[in-house]
Specification:
By secondary structure, the protein is mainly alpha-helical. Helices cover 38% and strands 0% of the residues.
Length: 96
């Protein structure tokens, strides 16, 4: 793939970037290097490589939930901006 000024300008427009004229050669060089790296990766034979699902050896490591601190209903309602003595109150969002 040929990287030229028109391509960089199009990509800049699509990504809502502004690239100054004096930055253009550096951006073209960087983009060519990135494309070259991807081409190197595509040349690697991965036909005998299993897909990697997890980086480490551990899979699905979960811990049991432990209750450390409980609060009662009155403590939960204490700092609520709106509440009655039983529930949190919220402003009406959907009106019929």
């Amino acid at each position: 793939m040929e990287v030229n000024k028109n391509l960089v300008e199009k990509l800049a427009h699509l990504s809502r970037l502004t690239i100054a004229e004096n930055e253009m050669p550096e951006v073209i060089n960087d983009l060519e290097n990135m494309i070259g790296f991807v081409e190197q990766l595509q040349a690697v034979d991965t036909s005998n490589v299993q897909p990697l699902m997890f980086v480490g050896q551990a899979m699905n490591v979960f811990r049991e939930d432990e209750v450390n601190y409980e609060i009662n209903q009155q403590q939960a309602l204490k700092n609520a901006p709106l509440h009655n003595n039983e529930f949190f109150e919220v402003p009406t969002v959907i009106k019929k």
